[in-house]
Design a protein that fits this description.
Keywords: Disulfide bond, Glycoprotein, GPI-anchor, Lipoprotein, Membrane, Secreted, Signal, Transmembrane, Transmembrane helix. By secondary structure, the protein is mainly α. It is 65% helix and 3% strand.
């Protein structure tokens, strides 16, 4: 609001109670009171008197506005006008004089209750014809766009998995729960926060709107903690599906437990940070009674822990990609896919910057717009990132010519399986690059005898992983271990050429 405000333990700051100005008892001196009233009306009348006739017609409305000023603000305005270098008839000069405005605000803040101070500020802004700032239309558009995108990706993911061979898992369940948890926030944004004055200056609002704004903002805080906890849980469950190593799964389980405990603790702190709970949104005017903890510390600590947890969750999969049985090009693609989650971390950092003015805001409905904006953007972005692997598969299935060509071209270079004998002889070297299971004499079966010689045909198996799906990453990770085992078996077992030579010698002797 105006001047220096002191911290109250709530989101709103109220002015320090300085000693009131020494004022005379104008009620017992009717002559002085009439003189003061006439001077007050004269000052504001002169401020609004331009040379044109159109401005002269506004005198009555300004006079009515001055008549509504609280008594505590009248003496402050008169004192500031007398000390201003501007001529009293020059309204443009007076309204643009920052020294006049600063002196008036400081005096009114110390002399008037907060409601009267806001009313006086509103009168001053209206007298100077200053435009009203309003970011609520932008916030409404952002809410509707994010609601549509989030609904689309979650519905596409669940429908695709329901009608495909992929099975629904815990990651799908937590993604759905996160979506259901974010729906009330979208509703509160449109029905609650915007009508309560989010994105507007606080002196343009009624006391009822300000109280309603604090109430809705209070509800959104624990809901935000729940939503981010569910998003992180969905990502962790996804990691547990695609990584099967015991060491990594132990770290993932520990992270799951930490995330659950962290979410529960912050939800409880957010709900019971004021006693009584209603004191959270009723103390803005300095008239309520109650106590609050250091509310500014709650979102700060939560944001720092959330960013650190995001970085840890990004490190876990990236540290295991080098062990996957994938071509280096595909490893880069998988790394980039996991790095999509860094968008959520970036938004969390930007949201943390908006918390700098969280507790010391003089104009909370305007200054806290940044917090509401980044919070509204962070949770849906996290849900969309959870659905990115499924959306990739949906795009490949829906548009194979557009999104499947690159994958097929790359797979054909490494996992080419010829369809006839001529192609097999032509691409024998390429097939031999693929890890082949151990071939022993027990795998050899006699083929139909077309001559006197006995010809043995061996079964060959080529294991080609579907690396286009990240749900097969368990087999890919285990494939690196299979490669080393198969190489050791092949080195200890007889080669195919030696078996063929021995068979040929036997047939010759016969």
């Amino acid at each position: 609001m105006f001047g220096r405000l002191r911290r109250t333990g709530s989101r709103f700051w109220i002015p320090e109670r300085r000693p009131r100005l020494v004022q005379r008892d104008y009620g017992h001196t009717s002559g002085i009171m009439r003189l003061l009233t006439s001077l007050t009306f004269g000052v504001f009348t002169l401020l609004a008197l331009p040379v044109s006739l159109v401005a002269a017609q506004k005198v009555n409305s300004i006079t009515d506005a001055v008549a509504q000023l609280p008594t505590c603000a009248v003496a402050c305005i008169l004192s500031a006008v007398q000390g201003s270098p501007c001529v009293s008839t020059n309204a443009t000069c007076v309204c643009s004089d920052s020294q006049f405005e600063s002196t008036t605000e400081g005096c009114i803040t110390s002399a008037c209750p907060i409601k009267d101070a806001l009313h006086a500020k509103n009168v001053f802004e209206t007298t100077c014809n200053r435009p009203q700032r309003d970011h609520s239309p932008e916030y409404a558009r952002l809410t509707w766009v994010l609601l549509g995108l989030t609904t689309f990706v979650v519905a596409a993911r669940l429908i695709y998995k329901s009608f495909s061979s992929a099975q629904l898992g815990l990651d799908d369940l937590f993604t759905l729960l996160a979506y259901l948890a974010v729906l009330p926030s979208f509703i509160i944004n449109v029905v609650g926060l915007i009508p309560a004055g989010l994105g507007k200056d606080i002196w343009t609002l009624t006391p009822r709107q300000i109280e309603s704004f604090g109430c809705w903002f209070y509800l959104l805080e624990p809901m935000y903690f729940i939503q981010m906890g569910l998003v992180k849980m969905a990502i962790l469950c996804f990691y547990m599906r695609i990584f099967d190593r015991a060491g990594l799964r132990t770290l993932l389980w520990a992270t799951v437990v930490f995330n659950a405990v962290n979410t529960v603790v912050f939800v409880l702190v957010g709900v019971f940070q004021c006693t009584p709970i209603s004191f959270y949104w009723t103390r803005w005017d300095g008239e309520g009674k109650g106590t609050c903890i250091n509310i500014n510390a709650v979102p700060w600590v939560n944001a720092i822990i959330s960013i650190a947890l995001d970085l840890w969750m990004l490190f876990l999969p990236l540290s295991r990609i080098r062990t996957l049985n994938l071509h280096w090009w595909k490893k880069i693609a998988v790394t980039l896919m996991f790095c999509v989650g860094t968008f959520v971390t970036i938004i969390s950092i930007l949201r943390l910057q908006s918390l700098v003015r969280f507790a010391n805001s003089k104009n909370p409905t305007w200054d806290q717009y940044g917090i509401a904006f980044w919070t509204c953007l962070e949770v849906p972005t996290g849900i969309i990132c959870c659905c990115m692997p499924a959306m990739r598969l949906i795009l490949i299935k829906s548009f194979p010519r557009l999104f499947g060509k690159l994958t097929e071209r790359h797979n054909s270079k490494k996992y080419a399986v010829p369809s006839n004998e001529e192609d097999r002889s032509r691409s024998r070297n390429r097939i031999s690059r693929v890890p082949v299971p151990e071939c022993s004499t027990t795998d050899l079966q006699p083929a139909p005898q077309n001559s006197k010689n006995v010809v043995y045909a061996g079964k060959s198996a080529v294991e080609a992983h579907d690396s286009s799906s990240l749900f097969a990453m368990t087999e890919l990770e285990a494939g690196s271990a299979k490669d080393s085992m198969s190489r050791s078996h092949r080195s200890s077992s007889p080669s195919r050429s030696s078996i063929a030579m021995s068979d040929q010698a036997v047939s010759t002797r016969r």
